[in-house]
Amino acid sequence: MQGTKVRVLIAKPGLDGHDRGVNVVAQGLRDAGMEVIYLGLRITPEQIAEAAIQEDVDVVGLSCLSGAHMALFPKTARLIKERSDKNILFIGGGIIPRKDVPKLREAGIAQTFGPGTPIPEIVNFIKTNLERGSDDNQD
Amino acid sequence: MAEELERKKEFMTTVDGTIINRVYTPGDSGELRQDTSLPGEYPFTRNIMPAGYRSRLWTMRQYSGFATVEETNRRYKYLYQQGQTGFSVAFHLPTQMGYDSDHPLTVGEVGRVGVAIDSLQDMEELWDGIPLAEVSTSMTINATAPIILAMYIAAAEKQGADQSQLMGTVQNDLLKEYIARNTYVFGPEPSMRLTTDLCSYCAQNMPKWNSISISGYHMREAGATAIQEAAFTLANGIAYVQAMIDKGMEVDSFAPRFSFFFATYNNFLEEVAKFRAVRRAWAKIMKERFGAQNPRSTMLRYHVQTDGFTLTEQQPLNNIVRVTIQALASVLGGCQSLHACSYDEALALPTEEAVQLSLRTQQIIAHESGVADTVDPLGGSYYIEWLTDQIEEGIQKYITKIDEMGGAPEAIKKGYIQREIRRAAYNYQKAVDSGEQVVVGVNKFAAEEEPELELLEIDESVEKKQVERLRRLKQERDNEKASRVLDEVRRVAKSDENLMPVLIEAVEAYATVGEITDTLRDVFGEYREPTIL
Q1: Which residue of A has its CA nearest to B309?
Q2: Cα B53–Cα B328–Cα B30 angle in degrees, nearest 5
Q3: B15-49 residue pLDDT tens
Q4: What is the spatial distance between Cα A60 and Cα A53, in angstroms, rounded to a whole number?
Q5: Strand order of the sheet with strand B258-264?
Q6: How many angstroms away from the CA of A68 is the closest CA of chain B?
Q7: Distance between first and last Cα of chain A
Q8: Every domain of chain A and the residues it spans
Q9: What's the CATH class of domain A7-136?
């Protein structure tokens, strides 16, 4: 990972159009030196998987504020894992009740960030976890 | 003056970063400060009505809708019993985007952010036991507004009401959807046609119906400052008025039924001043730019929702206090109707208990605080008057700039408005991250551990139930009639006839939201947002 820019794919699956969060996060990650590919609104899990493979990203960030995250986040992670051996880091954001967090983690979404999360917290999480992932290759 | 140490080197407004003086005096008045109008007098800075809330309190209207029509109907009846004075319908995203509940793209979305409405049958049951001739209803619906209004009219007529009696509002504001919120289906041109078809239909048939609610709320939620919210809303308003005039309508025939929708943030005095400024700015636009003669055309009537973005996931009970401050500012600003948010909304849709508390907050302000006993009680405060002028100047500057670009639709096409809002959102986040902007319980006074809240859950069976309802409907209705009327929708869409009458026929034949929208998609095409850097 050293020397190369971290590549992050960000997308909003589902019908939700609230994009303040993704826009701010995308800009924040860019300012932290990462390369951010923002796919936009209403992208299906299949389209996100295709882009993640094509773009060979290190991180996939999913945003959903409509409550459809349980139907969309795990499916997206699964579709990507089926097609890639790379240890991609999955993160999510939105209006996510706390009780859903363990289930999302089980499905491979390493962390979810709720409203008001400071950008440095997300940046640090990505950096720490990519380093750890490349060391011991844990899932 | 004696030097006295202050907490900060300088204090600044959040509307435009202007330095705030230690104290304001009559000496702070300038040219604009000649406004000595009374409430009910042009330019309506103080209130559109002479007696304000002394004659009639604001409408207490909680935005609500979830799961299927049965659950939502129950919530509506509950709110009504608790003293709510108007309804406000939240539709689930498939209805807003013109998909039926069985469409592949709607998986996980059915009944989530609002109630699932696929056909007139759902609309009829939504209002079961609620007399539509007597209540006032606001519907947050945009791309599919003409279809949903057609269903509302048809449901009301089945109850025995006449459409001319109906009171309420449809949002029907597509320009702001391309800026924020993003529930557009069609491109800007067919959208403007649908919007103005609906407005002219209402002008001719529904004298008590607000045919549009020109909305700043969602732009504010997306990060706009108070001045941007007010300015971009009025710029969109100008575009709609112009589009109606271009359609051949006379300004005073439709403008009295144009309404607005704004947000209220935590900065109490700035929000009060914003409402005074925006009322004055709109009155001048309508009179001076469009030559409106009817005073009602120049009155800015608006709904307020306290701001969702300011609610925090951390220490959620703090949100009760935020909502109270925001609701109070909305009332002192002179709103016609108000939704107070609930403390659990950074986590989920509100529970019944949380919504009841929001309604009680409004009722306590109305009946205990005394602020509704005199009109515009903050008018005449040196600071409020200075801020009102400051905000109005800011609004005018933006409108001039947007005019120079060729109006709001052009400014949106260029991405100008979107970029302005994004920059403001990012600056706000940086100010929070650096601690310059304090958010209690988030970047200051944070708690180690937080108790878990009991949240509203949408049962997984809702989707199955709704899909089954839809399947049954398609089996039981006269399918030949439905397809005939869809052909007729297609024909009218291709012509320049008003679409409303044929849409009413279509919903009466139980054609669904998805079927009608698909027909319109065939004719108008679909819009995909451009990338804005």
Answers
A1: A115
A2: 85
A3: 989 999 999 998 776 555 678 899 999 999 999 99
A4: 11
A5: B209-210, B167-170, B136-139, B86-89, B59-64, B337-339, B302-306, B258-264, B212-215
A6: 5
A7: 17
A8: 7-136
A9: alpha beta
Strand, helix or coil at B169?
Answer: strand
B440 lies within 8 A of chain A by CB: no
Whether B97 contacts chain A with CB within 8 A: yes
Interface probe, candidates A10, A19, A20, chain B, greatest B C-beta count within 10 A: A20
pLDDT per position as a tens digit, A114-134: 988 999 999 999 999 998 765
Check CB contact of A15 with chain B, cutoff 8 Å.
yes
Domains of chain B from N-terminus onward:
55-375+388-434 (3.20.20.240)
Tokens 């907490």 label which residue? B7
Residues of A in contact with B529 (CB under 8 A): 40-41
Name the B residues in 458-487 with CB < 8 Å from any A CB: 458
- Determine if the pTM surpasses 0.90: yes
Per the DSSP assignment, residues forming a β-bridge with B306 are B264
Q: Which of residues 38-77 of B touch A (CB under 8 A)?
A: none
The interface predicted TM-score of the complex, written ipTM, equals 0.92
Handedness of CA B415, B416, B422, B423 (dihedral sign): positive
